[in-house]
Amino acid sequence: MLALNGSRRIWLCTQATDMRRSFDGLAAQVKQLLAEEPHGGALFVFINRRQTQMKCLYFEAGGYCLWSKRLEQGRFASARQSQQMKKELSQTEFISLLEGLDLLITKQRKRYKIAA
């Protein structure tokens, strides 16, 4: 089961990903393409070129976890218009992506954040 908590960062890869990749291939893509550490506790989200499949890679105590979803109809929203290789998602944005809502936000409203 995919467990989310408020402290886990979620990164969306904005480039199309080959869904034949598994644990090691996606971990290598995290290091090379996203310039992040796959063991850092973050959740990494990858979407294929046709936007019909999604894989999520994260590391828990004991090893990697890989979660996938394939749509029978429709497509996942995409952030491919971005020039960046990755986009940080909030939990709400990630759940919206899973439920089929578009991630395009024209203006982010200010919210109070506790300084870490």
List the helices and strands and how they pair.
Elements: E1 10-13, H1 23-32, E2 43-47, E3 53-60, E4 63-70, E5 86-89, H2 91-99
Parallel strand pairs: 1-2
Antiparallel strand pairs: 1-5, 2-3, 3-4
Give me some keywords for this one.
five-stranded mixed sheet; 2 helices; 116 residues; alpha+beta
Give structural notes.
It is a single chain. This protein is of the alpha+beta class and 116 residues long. The protein has one domain (10-99). The chain is 16% helix and 25% strand. It has helices at 23-32, 91-99, and strands spanning 10-13, 43-47, 53-60, 63-70, 86-89. Strands 4-3-2-1-5 form a five-stranded mixed beta sheet. β1 (10-13), α1 and β2 form a beta-alpha-beta unit.
Please provide a brief summary of the model.
The protein has 116 residues and is an alpha+beta fold.
Number of extended strands = 5
- Nearest-angstrom radius of gyration? 14 Å
Distance between the termini: 29 Å
Multimeric state of these chains? single chain
